[in-house]
Amino acid sequence: MSIETGNPVVPTSITERPLPPAVKFNAATGTFTGKAEAAKTVRLTSSVDQRMHTATADANGDWTIALGKSPRWYTTFEIWVCSPEAAASSERVKFTFGGSNPRLSDVYASETLAFGCSKAGTKVVVIGPRGQVLGRGIALGKHGVWSVHFRESLSAGDRVCVLAESFSGNTSMPFFTKAEAFSVNDRNIGHIAGSGAMPGDQVQLYDTAADQVIASTIATEAGAWEVSFCDPIETGTRIGVERVHLNGTTSNGPVFVATANDCLAPAITSFSGTQIGGMADPSLLVTYTQLRNGQSIHSDTVSPRTSGFWSSDDATNYYPFDFQSGDILCAITKSPDGTQQSLVSSNVTVDSPRPGTALVTDIDENGAKGWAEPHKFIVASTAEDGVVCVAEIRFSWPLVA
Length: 401
Fold this sequence. Notes:
Radius of gyration: 24 Å
Distance between the termini: 13 Å
CATH class of the largest domain: Mainly Beta
Largest sheet: 5 strands, antiparallel
Mean pLDDT: 91
Number of domains: 5
CATH architecture of the largest domain: Sandwich
Low-confidence stretches: 1-14
Number of strands: 35
């Protein structure tokens, strides 16, 4: 699932630009070092004085910027690569000394997608070998899993850069890797599948926590492979992959977190008298919960009618709701087999206002834009993929595909 996020740092129309610099920081001496394309200029500014420091990467790509002393705590630095001859610059690395900077883990890239983990809510951008934006995503759910399907295919061995950004604007240090021919395209708790294996490879999946093989299959002549589970494995299980080739040698990786696929969230459209109801995809189940003072006082699951309307009146065991001011009502959807679950929920607080409906002024295959209440978020979902876009609202909002 590829989740696009709004407010991109650099327009995606710019497809020929430098990659971000690899960065290391020695706090004791106040020295930044790293790697960049040879002869390119690395620039650095800080929140203290906005003075621009520059360095030119040598023939080996090494660069150094020495501040002369350790910076004060919570100084924010922005670091990027500039190519004056191309009139282009890289994505910016934004680092706060002593602050909260996002981290990436279990990052893997194939020729068509990249995936990994970060803190939930972290935005991710994947950059290709020419500096082109391959796609953007956002880490969602309890396990912070993210996935980005590329706008254009790569070749095995192509360099890929992954950068995470928190909603505060701070970024991770750039993570560089190479695109692999082997891919894990589906990482669902009920079905794991991929491509790019060597014909006849034995593909083994193992639970990294238990260090135990949980499934094994043989790759086809085309290199495709898949495993299905009669009983879905636990969401959040960390899975490792090992391939045993026909000549007896082995290849390891990647490691990933198995999750339920996202699906379209429900809507709560009414709660009055003793009933709660709304709309949802008729093929899914709706689980609704009433919370009071942080404690669940009632929860049940119903099937929507063919029209998509769902109601607590359709529950097997009738429950007359008693709504009190401050109660929180939540609803999520899931598939009957448990392999899909909405990442976002519909939430209502009794006797509190709800955000107004967003105004959409333009929408096409490349994205959407419009107006909404400032300082909130726009979330767009589809029936096929669940959440596909997230944007932070300033005054207007963009959703970029």
